[in-house]
Structures are given as structure tokens and as C-alpha cells.
Amino acid sequence: MLVQFLVFSFLATTLWAGSFSADWPIGKSEKVLYEITLYGPTEVKSYIHLEVSRAVSSGDLFTVTQTTEIPEQTVTIKSIEKYRAADMKLVSSENYFTLPPEAAQQLGTNFISIIARANGDSLAISSNNPIIPSEKRLLTNDLTTCVGAFLTCRNSDFKMGSGHQYHMIDMFAITPPYFSILDMADSVVGEGTVTVPAGVFVCYKVKTMAGGTSYVYYSKEKGRLPIRLEALDSLSGKPISTIILQKYE
Predict the structure, then answer these.
(1) Is the peptide bond before 177 cis (omega within 30 degrees of 0)?
(2) For position 87, what pLDDT does the model report?
(3) Which residues touch 184 (CB under 8 Å, ≥6 apart)?
(4) How deeply is 57 buried, as exposed, middle or buried, from its count of CB atoms within 10 A (0-12, 13-18, 19+)?
(5) Can you list the pairs that 75-81 forms with residues at least 24 positions away whose Cβ atoms lie under 8 Å?
(6) What is the pLDDT of residues 43-92, one digit of tens each?
(7) What distances in angstroms separate CA 91 from CA 50, 65, 197, 208, 246, one per listed residue?
(8) E strands of 85-238, at which residues?
(9) Strand partners, 153
(10) HEC per residue, 211-231
(11) Is residue 237 a contact partner of residue 228, using CB atoms and an 8 Å limit?
């Protein structure tokens, strides 16, 4: 349940190369807060605290730091990921899970770390728990994660009718299948005004296909900040989950 919820909640939307990295000054940081709502059979709310920064202390890198809080399950996940500014290629992904006490019955611990690092054309993945295997995945230029998507999706040149296919790896895989890679497909389908607690934004509307249909709205200003996501049920067309921007600074 935890893995399915997190993967489906923040679907990646990486399009094609844009000028985002060129326009982001070195040393700049950005902090945002999102509220996640999962619908049915009971409504569950969770929260994403996310910060993006750029530094050149060890190469020109973007760092995405995300803390996901799931009060209903007493779960907290802190993720720290780095991407090369030149091409937004994944460099590393560190994920630290604080789980409820009952998790020890299944996993033998209530704290898990999953760390992935680029090594040539491979992504080497390891964990502190023997139940979760150490594995390697092919590191393609278009590979991102559900955390890194917040950054990589913004390095795009949004044009009506354009589309792109790419891949997203599940780094929140604390139960099988481990570290699966999803085939993603996006297309820009419209524009419009979106009102959320953080304000009113004129947005691009992007359709995402990954076993289901989602719509993501990106502000035309503020570096194409993701404003709202809606994941829809394939049969009824009703929302399965939403992610809504609460605060921006």
C-alpha cells in the first residue's frame, strides 16, 4: 500500500530539454509544500516538504531534498537526490524510511535506507536490510524517480501537442517488486488558470500515461513549478489521488 501510494502520487513528467537549468542561478534555493489526498475507500492525507537548490561545491549539481509525511501510517520518508545541471542526469538517490513499530514484524526493523549511485551506465542500488536486495539498473539519460521528477519535469520546452516517452524508477520499493522501472508517456494538452491554496496560476496542462491517466498542471511562471496533479480512475474517470501546492517560498 505504501509503495503503490507513493509511486502513483507523484508521477514523473519529464518532457524534452529546455532552458530551466540555464535560468536557475547557482546558490538559489526553493521550498514548497504539497498536500496529497488519496481517495477511497477512506480518504488519506499526506504531505510533501520539498527543497530544490543548486551548488557547484562538488560539480554543478541540483539537489532535491524531499520529506514525505504519511500521518495515517506514521511513516516518514526523507529523500536526497542529486542531478547534473548540464543534462539533468541522475547522480544519486538516498532514501531513508522511518516506519511504524509493526513494520519490524515484516521487515525486521522500523528504519530502512535505500541508496542508489551512478556508476558509468549503471545505477547501483543497496539497502541496510537484507530482505531488500542489492541490484543494478541500466542508467539511461531519461531515467528519473518520483522525487527527481519535481526537478527534471521543469527542464522542458512546453509546446501544445508535443509529447515524450521516458522512464521512471521506483526508489520507494521496500516490498516486491523491487526497483521496477515504469514506461512513461506525456503530452501537452492544454492551458488554463488553476487556483490552489498557494495562489492563482496560469498553467500548462500535461497528460501523463503510465498504466493510468494523470494530469499535471505546471505554472507558466516560477520556473514551471508543478501546481496540481490529478490521477484518475481508468473506468470511472474520478480522481484517485491529487497533489496540490499549499505553499511556495
Answers:
(1) yes
(2) 86
(3) 11, 12, 13, 14, 165, 166, 167, 168, 208, 209, 210
(4) exposed
(5) 75/2, 75/99, 75/100, 77/6, 77/172, 79/147, 79/171, 81/145, 81/147, 81/148
(6) 999 999 999 999 998 889 999 999 999 998 899 999 999 999 888 899 99
(7) 18, 14, 33, 25, 29
(8) 90-98, 111-119, 122-127, 135-138, 143-145, 163-169, 181-196, 199-209, 213-219, 226-232
(9) none
(10) CCEEEEEEECCCCCCEEEEEE
(11) no
Q: Judge whether 113 and 100 are in contact, CB under 8 Å.
A: no
The three grid cell numbers given for residue 95, joined into one nine-digit string: 532514501
Give the model's pLDDT for residue 19: 65
Long-range contacts of 138-141 (CB under 8 A, 24+ apart): 139/89, 139/90, 140/167, 141/87, 141/89
Read off the pTM. 0.87
Asked if 4 contacts 172 with a C-beta cutoff of 8 angstroms, the reply is no
- Which of 224, 154, 225, 142 lies closest to 185, judged by CA? 142
Check residue 18 and give its pLDDT.
54
* Residue pair 189/213 in contact by the 8 Å Cβ criterion: no
Residue 18's DSSP bridge partners are: none
Residues in CB range of 44: below 8 A, 6 or more apart: 5, 37, 38, 70, 72
The DSSP letter of residue 46 is E
All cell numbers assigned to 220:
507558466
Reported as a single tens digit per residue, the pLDDT across 190-244 is 999 999 999 999 999 988 876 678 899 999 888 889 999 998 887 888 888 999 9
HSE, CB side, 13 Å, CA atoms: give it for residue 12.
28
